[in-house]
Design goal:
It contains three helices and three strands; from the N terminus they run αββαβα. With 75 residues, it is an alpha+beta fold. It has one domain (5-72). A three-stranded antiparallel β-sheet has the order 2-1-3, with helices on both faces.
């Protein structure tokens, strides 16, 4: 489940990366961040990046809901 403040409080230059490590997590980052740099950071932390540079609130919520269905065996 995504904390409401993440999609609700994004400023125009913010993007969301969703890494997974035993569950999904959320990290807000500048739009200018290179996807390869984000992936390298996540790998150092022991995570796999599922998607980066998300901005649209509906798309973020849809992605998270889809992942939760997959994990829960409903999808």
């Amino acid at each position: 489940m995504i904390p409401n403040h993440i999609p609700n409080n994004l400023i125009p230059d913010d993007r969301v990366v969703i890494p997974a490590r035993g569950g999904i997590h959320f990290l807000v980052h500048p739009a200018s961040d290179d996807p390869d740099v984000i992936r390298a950071y996540a790998e150092r932390e022991g995570s796999e990046v599922l998607i980066t540079h998300m901005r649209d609130q509906a798309a973020i919520l849809e992605f998270v809901a889809g992942r939760e269905r997959d994990v829960g065996g409903e999808g």
